[in-house]
Design a protein that fits this description.
single chain; about 40% helix; globular; six-stranded parallel beta sheet; about 15% strand
């Protein structure tokens, strides 16, 4: 069973934390090098993201996929890659199984890549979705303070009060460094 790192998109690898039009999304300057570090040691890197604005009609699923392709091209120019992208395009009221904090996206990745989710890491900026989803599957939980991370730890902490992050990272660079150190401990 291989290890993998699941990265939320908005607020974790770029953007502001809120859903953005895919053509307006830009990665943080340090995101490609952080992803490349994981690529170089053979850890699969997946995006898992709620994209409720598709379901609510702000932009099309076709535009979302084109935006993902632009992001992948930008990463490739910088020597990094994503192994796959799992996304939920539904409205919150649709009641689907894939919208975080539900675990459908994680189960789809588990099935496709034969993963043991307990050996995976989930990095996100939202406690009530990313950290709760990670907790539900037994993955290691890393909350970044970028995007909505700081307000997840303060103003919205009550919405995920029964879940503790394994690590609170300043940003993706810090999160990846912690993951690399933690995975070394697991191997020794």
């Amino acid at each position: 069973m291989m290890k993998a790192v699941f990265l939320d998109r908005d607020g974790t690898i770029g953007g502001t934390g809120g859903g953005m039009h895919p053509f307006e999304f830009t990665m943080y300057e340090t995101a490609p090098q952080s992803i490349r570090q994981l690529n170089e040691i053979g850890i699969n890197v997946f995006i898992f993201t709620n994209q409720t604005r598709v379901g609510r009609g702000y932009f099309s699923e076709e535009d979302l996929i084109k935006g993902f392709e632009l992001m992948k091209s930008d990463l490739a120019r910088q020597g990094a890659h994503l192994d796959d992208i799992f996304y939920c395009p539904h409205k919150p009221e649709d009641g689907c199984e894939c919208q975080k904090p539900r675990i459908g996206l994680l189960l789809a990745a588990k099935e496709k890549y034969d993963l043991n989710l307990e050996e995976c890491y989930i990095v996100g900026d939202t406690g009530s979705s990313d950290m709760v989803a990670a907790s539900r599957v037994g993955a290691k939980k890393v909350l970044v303070e970028t995007g909505w991370g700081k307000t997840s730890l303060t103003k919205y902490r009550k919405s995920w009060e029964n879940v503790e992050a394994d690590y609170i990272a300043t940003d993706l660079v810090d999160a990846v460094q912690w993951i690399l150190n933690d995975s070394e401990k697991d191997q020794s």
